[in-house]
Amino acid sequence: MKKLLSVFVLFYSALAFSAVPELPFPTGSCSGILSLVDPELSSNNSHTFDGDANLTLIFDFDAGQAYGVFLLFDDFDGDNERFAQWSVDQDASGASFTMERDELMPASFIATLSLDFPIDASTPNLVNLQPTGNVFQEYTVKFRLLPTGGGSVYIIQGINNAEHGFCAAL
Question: Is pTM, for the whole model, over 0.70?
Answer without folding.
Answer: yes
